[in-house]
TrEMBL record:
Protein name: AIG1-type G domain-containing protein
Tagged with keyword Nucleotide-binding: yes
Coiled coil spans: none
GO molecular function, one term: GTP binding
Length: 243
């Protein structure tokens, strides 16, 4: 089915968000429209089981894609489209890029083919916050993304770390943990050519903390917020995806 013949559903999920979030979200969509941006296409990629589909659902505020605890994911990319006040949001959920301990190059090819006539505005590279080590597989996936989608894709990327509402072992400071975890991942997402040394030092690819479960902390306006005191990195989805 071509894009033109597709009837895009009204973005009803917005109404699930607390009023404060709705107001800010609509403000943001208004700003984008002023800049003549009326479509935003988000690509979501990462390993299997890290919370990609849950994040898609959190962003639009609906159970639009299947979340599975035990089963592996569907083999194909899926695009969910919603429109609101003349603005269209497209989110492409994808199968995990790791299958049986190996990079799933077949999935990458499927994703590439799926994206052929689409322009990606934002890449959400999803992983879990509550993982203590990065390993060779992380390196291989980010390399595969770079090789297949071009290193420029990282300029439009956000690193999304799910399970952000975690309890840390004693004496581990949340803020320190978050920055160590981010840095470890960012090391792989720093192709030498387009990133200057100084950018690698600071996190040039923004890191967003996300808690998809109901455990997420909330502020006085009932908005989801992060555990970090200064809210430098936040998990109040879906607002920060649009920043
Ligand atoms: P995907 O394979 O990357 O699409 O991951 P899913 O979205 O299907 O999630 C896999 C499992 O992790 C499911 O049981 C989700 O409920 C759970 N999950 C996803 N995100 C979070 C999160 O932020 N916090 C918690 N506690 N569980 C999550
Ligand atoms: Mg999934």
């Amino acid at each position: 089915m071509s894009m033109a013949s597709q009837v895009i559903r009204e973005w009803m999920g917005i109404q699930q968000f607390p009023p404060a979030t709705q107001t800010k979200l609509l403000e943001l969509l208004g700003k984008l429209k002023q800049e003549n941006v009326n479509t935003l296409t988000i690509l979501v990629m990462g390993k299997g089981g890290v919370g990609k589909s849950s994040t898609v659902n959190s962003i639009i505020g609906e159970k639009a894609v299947t979340v599975s605890t035990f089963q592996s994911e569907g083999p194909r990319p899926v695009m969910v489209s919603r429109s609101r006040a003349g603005f269209t949001l497209n989110i492409v959920d994808t199968p995990g890029l790791i299958e049986g301990g190996y990079v799933n190059y077949h999935a990458i090819q499927l994703i590439k083919r799926f994206l052929l006539n689409k322009t990606i505005d934002v890449l959400l590279y999803v992983d879990r916050l509550d993982v203590y080590r990065v390993d060779n597989l992380d390196k291989q996936i980010t390399r595969a993304i770079t090789d297949n989608f071009g290193e420029q894709i990282w300029k439009r990327a956000l690193i999304v770390l799910t399970h952000a509402q975690l309890s840390l072992p004693d004496r581990l400071d949340y803020e320190v943990f978050c920055s160590k975890r981010s840095e470890a991942l960012l090391k792989f997402v720093s192709p030498s050519t387009w990133m200057k040394k100084k950018d690698i030092q600071g996190s040039f690819v923004p890191v967003v903390l996300v808690e998809n479960s109901g455990r997420c902390a909330k502020n006085e306006n009932d908005e989801k917020v992060s555990q970090l005191p200064d809210n430098r990195i936040q998990c109040c989805f879906p607002r920060n995806v649009f920043y």
